[in-house]
Amino acid sequence: MAKRPLLVGNWKMHGDGGDLAVIVAIGEAARRHPAVDVALSLPATLIDRARRVCPGLAIGGQDCHPEPSGAHTGDISAPMLREAGASLVLLGHSERRQDHHEDDALIAAKLRAARAAGLEVILCVGETAEDHAAGRSAEVVRGQLTLSLAGMNGQGIAIAYEPVWAIGGDRTPEPKEVAAMVGLIRNTVAGARVLYGGSVTPDNGEALFVDGGIDGFLVGRQSLDADAFTAILKLIDGTAR
Ligand code: PGA
Predict the structure, then answer these.
(1) Per the count of CB atoms within 10 A, which of 21, 74, 91, 233 is most buried?
(2) Does the pLDDT at position 241 exceed 70?
C-alpha cells in the first residue's frame, strides 16, 4: 500500500528570527497540500517560535542526546525538544557522523531516547564517495541500518537515504540507483517510509520521486527558500496520486 508522502526540510545551522516569514510561508503551503506530511527540522533556537507562528506545521530538531538530562554541556535531550514543540528529530545525519564522529551505536542510543520521548525519527543513512566508487554502497547502508536500529522495528521511524557525496553539491545518483537502495531499505526495515536526500531541487525532484520509488524527500538548501520548497511539495503532491 502506498504510504503518505513525507517532505522534510533540514535547515542545518541556518536561520534566525528574521526567517519566521519563510516558516509561515512553508506552513501555508503545507496547508494547501494536506495529502503530503510536511515538516521542518530547525535549529533548536527556532523551534518554539516556529510553533507559535505556525501551529499546524510539524517541527523537528536535528539531533538529540541519548540521556534525558545530565551534565552534557551544549547538548539537547529528546524530552527538551519535545517540550519546545518538536514532534520529530533527525538522527545520524552524515554531518553529525563526520563532524562529531557519531557511530551507529551512539545513533542507536539516541534513537531509543527519541522514541521514548515520543518523537518520530528520521534516521539518515548513506555511503561516502569512496564507498560508492568501491561498489560498497549496499553493504554500508545495510550495516548502518542494522546497527543503528539495533532490533527496533520501523514504528515511528522514517529512513532517509542520503549518499554523502550527493549532499550539499549538485550531483545526485541516478533514480535507478536510488530505487535499488530503496528496495534494500524496505527489505531491511519493513513499514518505514523511505526518503531520499542530497541536492534535491524542483528540477530533479520528479525523476527521483517517481523512478526512485521513494515516499518523499529530506531537503537541505532548497528548504531555506519557501518558493523552491513549495515547488518540491507541489511535485510530490502532483505525482503521488
Ligand atoms: P542538500 O542537503 O539538499 O543541501 O544537499 C540535504 C541534507 O543534508 O539533508
Answers:
(1) 91
(2) no
- Residue 70 alpha carbon to ligand 1 centre in Å: 31
Q: Which residues contact ligand 1 via a Cβ below 6 A? A: 10, 162, 167-168, 197-200, 218-221
Q: Does residue 10 carry a pLDDT above 80?
A: yes
CATH of domain 6-240: 3.20.20.70
State how far the Cα of 216 lies from the Cα of 101, in Å rounded to an integer: 27
Q: Model-level pTM?
A: 0.97
Alpha-carbon torsion, ordered 195, 124, 37, 224, to 10 deg: -100
Residue 10 · residue 90 · CB < 8 Å: yes
Cα of 168 vs centre of ligand 1, distance in Å, is 5
Q: Which residues of 47-78 are buried (b: 16+ CB within 10 A; e: fewer)?
A: bebbbeebeebbbbbbbbbbeeeeeeeeebbb
pLDDT digits (tens, 9 = 90+) for 41-98: 999 999 999 999 999 999 999 999 999 999 999 999 999 999 999 999 999 999 999 9
User: Distance between CA 83 and CA 232 in Å, rounded?
Assistant: 30
Closest ligand 1 atom to Cα of 90: 9
- Per-residue pLDDT of 198-217, as tens digits, reads 999 999 999 999 999 999 99
Centre of ligand 1 to C-alpha 71, Å, is 31
Q: What are the boundaries of each domain within the chain?
A: 6-240
